[in-house]
Structure formats: C-alpha cells, structure tokens
Amino acid sequence: MGENPAKNHYAQLNQGEENEMDIFGYKTQGCRRALCIAGYILSCGALRLLFYWKPEWHVWISCIQCSLEEADIVLLRTTDDFRTYSRKTVTWISMSAFIKSRSDNPAIEEDSIFSKAIMKPSLLVKTIQVQKIRYVWNVYAKQFQKIGVLEDHYTCSAIHDKFGSGLTCNEQNVRRVICGPNTIDVPVIPIWKLLIKEVLNPFYVFQLFSVCLWFAEDYMEYANAIIFMSLLSIFLTVYDLRKQSIKLHRLVESHNNVMVTVCRNKEGFQELESHHLVPGDMLILKEGKTLLPCDAILVSGQCTVNESMLTGESIPVTKIHLPRADNFQPWRVYCAEDYRKHVLLCGTEVIQTKADDRGVVKAVVLRTGFNTAKGDLVRSILYPKPMNFKLYRDALRFLMCLIAFAAIGMIYTVCVFALNGEETGEVVKKALDVITIAVPPALPAALTTGVIYTQQRLKKKGIFCISPQRINMCGQLNLVCFDKVMAMWWLCPHCFQDIYSFPADHGLPWSPVFKALAVCHSLIVWEDKIQGDPLDMKMFEATNWVIDDSSGHQNAGQGPTHATVVRPGLKATTAPVEGITILHQFPFSSALQRMSVIAQEIGGDPQAFIKGAPETVATLCRAETVPSNFESKLLLYTAQGFRVIGLACKSLQAGKLPAALTREEVESDLTFLGLLIMENRLKRETKPVLEELTAARIRSVMVTGDNIQTAITVAKNAGMIAPTHRVILVEANKEPGSFSASVTWKSLQENKIEDCRSLVSISEAGFPGIRLALGSGQYHFAMSGKSYQIVAQHFRHLLPKLLLNGTVFARMSPSQKSSLVEEFQKLDYFVGMCGDGANDCGALKVAHAGISLSEQEASVASPFTSRTPSIACVPELIREGRAALVTSFCMFKYMALYSIIQYLGVLLLYWQLNAFGNYQFLFQDLAITTVIGVTMSFTRAYPKLVPYRPPSQLTSPPLLLSVVLNILFSLSMQIFGFVVVQEQPWYSKTNIHSACLSVNNHERNSSSSLGLHGVRDGAQEQIDNGFKSYENTTVWLLSTINCLIVALVFSKGKPFRQPIYTNYVFMLVLTVQLGICLFLVFADIDDLYSKMDLVCTPTTWRISMVGMLAVTLAVSFLVEEAVIENRPLWLLLKKTFRYRSKSHYKRLQQVLEQDPAWPPLNETFFSDSVAVTVEGNMGGHSNPTFDSSEDSL
C-alpha cells in the first residue's frame, strides 16, 4: 500500500532543508484499532513486531486518511532514496493558564508564529516532535512549522525595536510553554530500553526463530552456543550504546543549566537559569568567559568567541553587532553571507566582550534547544544521515537472492522427505532448517566489521569520524577540493607603495602603511598570547609592536570604553606616538573581501584603515590616489605566487561616535596606501601529497578565497597544474543595462622574456582567435567566484564542460563552494572536500567525504576531522576507505560462499534423508566462520594509492563471476565426492564400519577382525543417531575445508590492502583451523569421530579427499588471480564489447575529445547568442543555490 497525496492530507516539513520530510495526516479509527489488537493477540505479538519494523503499515491499517488539520496521527517519510517512515502522535498544549483575556494574547504581534499557533477560542496549540525538534500547527498557513527559532522575516531594525528592551514576563511564559525548555537534553538511555530495542532487531528475531527450530530438532549444543553468542553480542552492543549515551549526555549537560542575565521589559535585569530562555529574550553578556546556552544575535557591543569546540575553527572569532538598518529586507537577506558575523553559537565560549557607547553587550536569543548549532551537532550524532551507497543496496538484493535459493531448497526438501513418507512435522522442520542455512543472519554485521576496524585505525592516526557509513565512500573518491589550507604565509621583506621602499635589514618606517599594519587586524590577547588569523599575526609581528588589551581606555571627549591599544615594542622603530587605540572593527567578510577598523592615535583624531583584496580596495579609493601602474604591479606580484593585500585609509570626523558609523560610511572615499606583499611557502608535505593523488588519478581542485593569479601560481607550484599544461582564464561579466551576460576565454602563458614572469594573454601578444590542439587534460580552466556565479546563472550548458577541466576557483564565497561541490557531484564525481571547518561548513557537509582540519574530535562542520592541520590526512583517508571497501567485498563473498557451501552439502545429504550433525554445524559455524569473520578484516591498507579504484558495487561482473565460479567449484567437488564415495568397493549403505573392517581383514587375523566388529557394532547400537554415513563424512570434510579455501582465496591483498601474509592473526587462525581439519581427516579416534558424527574411511580415500581439495584450491586460486584479478583482461573485454561508462563526466569527456572547437580561446560568448547544443545529450542541470536572487558579489 502506498501514499496517495491528496489535498490537505499531504505537505512537506522543512522544505528545501537537509532534513526535508513528507508528512501525511491520519485519524485513528476505533474499529480498525480493535481489529489490530485482535491481530496482536491471535498472532502472539508477531503482528505488533511487524508494525514495530514497519510503522507505515500500522498507520495504514489502523487509521484513515484525513487533512493535517484534523489529524491525531502523522506519518513522516524522508525524501531521500531510502524513504524511511516514522509515526508521530499529535499532542496538545493548553494556553488558558497564561492567556486570561484578549489583552494578554500575543496576537498583538500578528506576524509571530506564537500568535498564529494558538487556536481560538480553545486556546490550544497543536504540536508534534520529530527528531527532538518541536513543530506547531500554524492555524492561518495550515501547516506545521518549526518552533524554538526567531522567525526569519524580521528586519534588522525590527529586531532592535521589538526585542531591544526584552520580553515581558507573560510573553516569556507563553513562548516557553510553546517552545519547551532551552535544553539539549540527551538522557542516559536505561539499559532495559536498550536491551529491548536490540532484541527486537530483525537479526536477533531471526536468531530466535532459528534457536526455537534447533531445540525442536534436538540441536541442543548448537542452539545453546548460538544463544550464548547472541547474548554476548547483545551485551557488548548494549554496553557500547550505553557508553555512547553517557558520553553524549556529559557532552551536552554543561550547557543545560547555566545562570544568565536577561533584560525584562519594564522590569529591568533578571537572573535566571538558561533552560528558561526563549527566542526573543534579551541576553546580557557580562565580562569574563561565558559559555553560551543558546544561539543569539549580537545587537550591541562586540565579542570574541572561541568556536573550536563546535566548528573546529581554532582561531578566536570576532563577532560584531547587527546594524540598525532601516529597510524592508529580512535581516538574514540584508546581511547575506555575513550574517554569521552577528550570530553567537550555542556551545561556544565568549572569551572577551567589548561594550560600545551604549553600555552593555546585548544579544537577542535566536534559537533554543536542539534548533541551535550545538543541538544540530548532537542531532547529527543521534540521527545520522543514511548513505545510499551501492554496496548496502546490492547486499540487500543478494540477500533476496539467497532467500530465493532458500525457497527452492525448501521445495526440494518437502518433495524429497514427503515422497519418502516422512511425518509432516519432520518435513516442516527440515524445510525451515534450510532457511537458517541458506540465509546467513550475520551478513549485515559482517559487512560492517571492515568499517569498524578502519574507524579504529583512523582514530589512532588522529582522524575522527562521526559518520562511519562514509568510510566506504572514501574508497571511491576521484576528486578532492582543497581550500587554501595547503599554504602558509610569511611577510615578504619588502612592501610595495608608491612612495616608500626599504631594504630587508631595516624595520618599517613610520607611515600610514605602518599604522595600517599595526591596527588593521582582528588579533586579541588570550591566555597571555596573541591569537588570531595567521596572516594577521605575521603582518603584526613585522611591526614589532605589542597589544595592550586594555579593559577601560579613556578616549577624549567620551566615556570609558573597552578598547584594544597597540604600542611600540622593545624592538620597534621609533614612533612619534605613545600608541594607537582600536575603537571599532568591521571583521573580514567573504562576500565583501575586506575588513576595516576605526583607530585613533592616543591624543589624535580617529582614522579608518581598510585591508582586503587589492582589486576590491582600489574600487573604494579615490581614483587620484590609485597609482596608474596598479594593475601591472598587482599582476607582477600575483603571477609570482605572492599573497597581495590592498591597504587604504581615511580620516574621520572627531565628534562622531565610532559605533554610530556604518560600514558603508567608513569604507568609501578612501586614500589608497599601497600593496602588502606576503610570500607564499608551501608546506613541506603539500606537493608530495598532491603528486600522490595525481599519480592515483584523483583530481585535485583548488577552491579558495585568494586572488586568482596567486591561486594559479600556487596551483602550479603545488603540482596541481603541470608545467607543460596551459591555463585558460574564464571571465564572465553581466552586460550593463541588460539581462544578458558574456563569458571570455583567455589563454595564459608564462612570458619567458620578461624577468617578472608575469602572465600575459595570447591575444595581447597579437594572436587573436588562435586555436591550439589541446588534448584532454592538457589544459586547465581558472575562474573567480563572480565568473562562476554568472556562468551558473546564464551559461548552464557550459558549466559541466568547464568543471571537467576546472582546476582553480578563486575568490569563492562559502555558498559558491557548496554549489561547486554539488555541481561536481552531478557529473558523477565522488567528491572529497578538505577545509578548515569555518567558512567551509556547507561544502564539507555536502561533499561525499568532508575533512575538517581541526583539533576537536567531532565537528558540526564535517563527517571527518583531522587533528593534524595537514592535507596528508586526505590520501590516508582514501587508502583506508579503499581497504574498508575491499574488506567489505571480501567479507560479503566469504559469508555468501560459506552459507551456499553448507546449503549445497545439506541438500545433497537430504537426498539420502541425512543431514549434518549438531557438532558438525557447530564446528563450521563457530570454530571456522565466526573466527574467520572476526580476523579477516584485520588486514591493513596498502601504503600506495594505485591509479584506479575498487569496484563500487557487488553486482560488478568480476565480483559476481568470482562468486558464481566458486559456487560451481564447490558444487562440483561436493557432488563428485558424494557420487564417487558410493562407487568405492568398501562402501556400504547400511554398514558404516565396512570400510575399516575390510582394511582390517587384510591386516589382522579374522578373530581380531571379529572382535573389532563386535566393538564397532556395539558402539553403533549405542550412539548412532542417524547422521553417520560415508556421504556425510565425505561431504562434511570437503565442505569444511572448502570454507578455509574460499577464505584464503577471497582475502585480497594488493593493490588496495597489504598482502594477506601481513595479517598474522588471520594466517595463524587459518593454519590452526587447517591443522585441526586435517587431524579430523586422518585421526581415526573412535570417541572423537563418534562425537563429530564421522565414520572411518580407508586412508586412500582420505588422501583422495585431500587431493580433491588441493585441486579445488589450485583452480580457485588460479581463476581468481588469472581471470578475476586480471585488470588488463577486463579492460580488453570492455574495449572489445565497446563498454561505455555510465559516469556523466566520462561521457562528457568523450564528447569533448571529439569536439575540435573545444576549448575556445580568446573568444567571447553572449548568453543570448549561444545555442544550447549539448544540453540534450548531457542532460540539463538545475541548482537551487542559483535559482534564487543571490548576488553576493
């Protein structure tokens, strides 16, 4: 039964967000519910268990469809490929105790969700809770909306006006009842709950079914062993879950009960516990360290925050207050990507506050509870996003195939035993037994063992993972995006400015440039050390000044304010001032590409200093102050890979308060000071890492906020762009006064003649319209964030072509980084993203494998976190991912073969109404398979990355062929042994001791033989339980050692894992197991054989069995190495049968290789004159990021 989305019955929850869900309304019906209860009783609880596994069936059967407004039960369905259902009950909250009359009703603020959620006249609020988030029913919009968040529609001025004085007590009470407490409550789950949840897992239910069946068949020892193993497994799982629950509880409990000060409207300041906070509360931030219990918008003053425990950003972050802008745009839209500069995040630590002229530092509560950034991190751990990886999907399909095999085996069993006149009960038991043999219940657990071991190995190497499902994905990565983390910056020994020039052995002279270097930064003193951006620190160190972080500096004409003062240090050159006070700061903005400060010499007038991207700073300066050779000088230095920063300043009116000035006022009509040149030195490990990735045919792409020329040079120095490859600069611009846009392609080359090695355009050299015969991969596109955005908006058909060879993306904003990763994914790339976890959060989350370079174990930014701030973690993660993926395949193949080998052996014996004995099953399942399953995954990753990836799916031809051929080999060997043993001269169907007696007759006298015969017959009468036969002994010994053979053959080593002999534990296990098996073959110990249900056979037959096994091993190993693992053979077959890759990027690559007009050089295309010729073949793309009116640059 499926869903039929009718009007008002269906809606979407969190539309467009990461946790988007479909929601359906249902109403409970009494008679249906009564029928369900009757079904529970009649099925002895089996129906209730089925509904526990399938909540949607429960809802469909017990409820009727209705509108969401009338619903008392809602059914939620995720919108991902898994389409997972969950059932939630609607609850009601009464507000009558807080709203006595209409004047008390918060409807005075009509646009508030709090007023829209209260139903009239009942004063009830309808709510549901999904994954710790509360949603209320909006009476007017007729939909469920998230609560616990300040609505996005408020403008900047509205936030100041509505919440600047705080909420009244009654408003606060109403909001608290509707939103719930401001806590990230992760209770320690009781052991009994964990136990019940674990026991109701389908795996253990199947085990229970199997155990009941085995008890019915008197398989007492095996059933008891399985019970013991299952209980041990449940105990270990519950212990681990309990430990995780306690750890997570301790992680969040410190934020749940913090004393805070709030401002109450008409009542002044009030101290209360943080769990009483609601969205809209006015929070007062006092001096000293403060742990933030909620997300809040800073509305006055300035803060420095340590966000390392949340985002992984180890550098203290400066937050500034929300501007009081009078406009009609929502505050988040108005602030664009810089809205984060005004938001304080829950779980972070305020380490410094600076009040402005208005007195105290204030913040309006934005989000509470699980809606906060900290809550989001905790929810991502509690409810990890499932990864739709082909391995797990294919494993489920193969499990279905095994169930089909079991069904065939059941039919065969019923026919054989029924035709031989067996009792009905016995036939049913034997038929059900086939299911427990053919379907290995441990298969899902076996597939995860490789991932668990890999996660432990990564942890030892300082790489932490909060999403283990993604480890296998790392094995498929073929493109990695890097932020600028690969480079570190040093101050160059000279500084360009149109007046000053100085040698390396002298300090910087006193000048406006010097003042800019001394004050235009976001550095702070924290724990007696200067902390901040490494670039700022290098710049400030060059001045030899020191920071005096004063808490109460007196400015002329003003009251005492919190300010930072910089003063000359001991090694500083002489300066005519005592120091400079930094009065106000506008932090660096990715969208604006600059930062600025208002500073004042002690006893002097205030000035503004600006630092940022040279091309951006130059546009803000008066034209007469920008040197005429500005562009050529900028090109000169960026072409050499230097980091170039523009500096500018401006004098301000003495009487105006710094806090009253807007950023637009400060950053206009500036005087250009010069360029700060910083030398770029690659980290020692950067180039080898990138070379290793290139050798492994893994693309490296630079996604940075730096200047494009600098980025190109860094890419060349790092080896991303080979010296023989050409760089094509893609520049896109919007046509002024029209809706069209243009894109220009310029080929850049190094001019060998000029010593400055500047990059020049071929068209400038006098070769317009020239075309070069460039092979695929022999050229690289470079473009800025602005060009990328215009191309994405106006040239959608060109974007996939550009991305195919795009290597450098400069001046990229955070949202553009996320968009770029998504566009690469649309081309079927498996994308990794390596960044610092701060402004790369979006891209790190979107990527298949996001790696945050941070000191924290877990980060809200990404699934992987590396404690070592080095990109060396990237190949390490790929190596381990490949090893985990191959281990999963090995385990899958082994578990499948083990069950099928046992299944074939049992069906053969069923033909003679025989079967394996209890201890035979016990030995195969416990002593062989369980031990192999645990130790096979110990093999470590191969240290070298090969230039191809492991298969991504179980249905790949080599893997399927390997499984099928080994099934045939096992089947052939078992049938051969089963048939040939019956042809032996000593074989007897009725006398199981005839073989050994016939041998003894030749070796001993008849009296001895008769004596032995009497002993054997006596033993038979006492302990023969019907399992003993020559066929049983032959088939069991062959199948048992065959399990060892496939374990050895399937344990792949190179090229993705180390050779199997390096897994010492596994090799020791195999050796011991083989020794025991051979001992069983040749021992002929009566008591042991009797216990194992084996019979004595002549030595010649035992040697024959060993010979069969040796042939099987040789054939299996030869086929695996010569056919399955023969990569050249499979490539030849692909070529012969003209196999075409399904990957979008590979098909596009083939098309472009045949296109003589690609890449275009020194040409300009216009958006309204380009025919979309490839869209039909390549498929259109749509990216919601750019369907909006976003225009950040």
Protein described:
By secondary structure, the protein is of the alpha+beta class. Among the domains are: 10-146, no CATH class; 191-254; 259-382, Calcium-transporting ATPase, cytoplasmic transduction domain A, CATH 2.70.150.10; 440-462 and 877-1125, Calcium-transporting ATPase, transmembrane domain (Up-down Bundle), CATH 1.20.1110; 512-550 and 562-624 and 641-657, Calcium-transporting ATPase, cytoplasmic domain N (3-Layer(aba) Sandwich), CATH 3.40.1110. 42% of the residues lie in helices and 19% in strands. The protein contains 40 helices and 43 strands. Strands 20, 21, 34, 35, 36, 37, 38, 39, 40, 41, 42 and 43 form a twelve-stranded mixed sheet that branches. Strands 22-33-32-31-30-29-28-25 form an eight-stranded antiparallel sheet, with helices on both faces. A hairpin with a 3-residue loop joins strand 10 (259-264) and strand 11. The longest helix is centred in the last third of the chain and has 38 residues, at 873-910. It is globular and about 115 Å long.
Keywords:
19% strand; ATP hydrolysis activity; globular; magnesium; eight-stranded antiparallel beta sheet; ATPase_P-typ_cyto_dom_N; disordered N terminus; alpha+beta; twelve-stranded mixed beta sheet; translocase; Calcium-transporting ATPase, cytoplasmic transduction domain A; single chain; ATPase_P-typ_transduc_dom_A_sf; 1193 residues
Layout of secondary structure:
Layout: E1 10-13, E2 21-28, H1 30-42, H2 46-53, H3 55-62, E3 63-65, E4 73-78, E5 85-89, E6 91-94, H4 113-117, E7 124-130, E8 133-138, E9 143-146, H5 156-163, H6 169-179, H7 191-199, H8 202-216, H9 220-253, E10 259-264, E11 268-273, E12 282-285, E13 290-291, E14 295-300, E15 302-306, H10 308-311, E16 317-320, H11 331-335, E17 343-344, E18 349-354, E19 361-367, H12 373-382, H13 390-419, H14 424-438, H15 443-460, E20 463-465, H16 470-474, E21 479-482, E22 487-491, H17 512-519, E23 524-526, E24 529-531, H18 534-541, E25 545-548, E26 553-554, E27 560-561, E28 564-568, E29 580-589, E30 594-601, E31 606-612, H19 614-620, H20 630-638, E32 643-651, H21 663-666, E33 671-682, H22 686-695, E34 699-703, H23 708-718, E35 726-734, E36 741-750, E37 759-761, E38 779-784, H24 785-794, H25 799-805, E39 806-810, H26 814-826, E40 831-835, H27 841-846, E41 849-853, E42 864-866, H28 873-910, H29 918-935, H30 957-982, H31 994-1003, H32 1006-1023, H33 1030-1050, H34 1064-1082, H35 1086-1091, H36 1099-1124, H37 1127-1136, H38 1144-1153, ...
Parallel strand pairs: 21-34, 21-40, 34-39, 35-38, 38-39, 40-41, 41-42
Antiparallel strand pairs: 1-2, 2-3, 2-4, 4-5, 6-7, 7-8, 8-9, 10-11, 10-12, 12-19, 13-18, 14-17, 14-19, 15-16, 15-18, 20-42, 22-33, 23-24, 25-28, 26-27, 28-29, 29-30, 30-31, 31-32, 32-33, 35-36, 36-37, 36-43
Helix pairs in contact: 2-3, 7-9, 8-9, 8-14, 9-29, 13-14, 13-28, 15-28, 28-30, 28-33, 29-33, 29-34, 30-33, 30-36, 33-34, 33-36
